[in-house]
Amino acid sequence: MRALRDSGWRVIAPVRPGSAGRLPDGVIAVEADLTVKTDVEAAVDTAAGEPGAPLRAVVNLVGGFAMGGKVHETPVEDFEAMLRLNLRPTYLVTAAALPHLVEAGGGSIVCVSSRAALAPFPGAAGYVTAKAAVLAFADAVAVEYKKQGVRVNTVLPSVIDTPLNRDEQPGADTSRWVTPDEIATVIEFLAGDASAPTSGARIPVYGQS
Asked: How far is CA 199 from the centre of its chain?
């Protein structure tokens, strides 16, 4: 968000109730549950509602990870929870934003998948499937809306250097992880006009891992 704000974007960020104070200065908060269609539509309408500043870019950041057992040990409810958390918000936000982007003459959508979508590991079938589905969905939208000037690209981070990941992996070599700022730089490039010729790309953001 800071990278986009600092580049001159008007940034609208959906947040959970009561968490707007965590956003950087200059970022406009909209309380919304991005798994709820009406909340998503209201948030997108806010983003597109400024006269003279049409919606030109959408960044789908919502997602999450939960470790589990092997497939036969994983309840279907847990499997579906990963789809709901990682795929449903991306679908709802993209679907709500597309008419505005088309009306504006085009724009950029950036989705966030994961290296795990291409290199699965045991105990995460739900997460791996969901992130692979995000990748396939982004590819499909890129094809469907190419003639309307809407570009869709996906970044695939490896392990992200966050406090939570450091707590959960205390013995890891964090120097090999990718930082949020490094990911933000790639997203900012894909959102902007500098990447205008690029659509349907799958961008590895792996750090040194």
From this structure: 16
Three-point CA angle 94, 34, 11, nearest 5°: 70
Whole-number Å distance between alpha carbons of 130 and 90? 11
- Measured between alpha carbons, how far is 150 from 77 in angstroms, rounded to an integer? 34
Give residue-wise pLDDT tens across range 9-27.
888 898 888 777 777 788 8
C-alpha–C-alpha distance, residues 55 and 35, integer Å = 21
Which residues participate in catalysis according to the annotation?
Answer: 127
Instruction: Kindly report the pTM of this predicted structure.
Output: 0.92
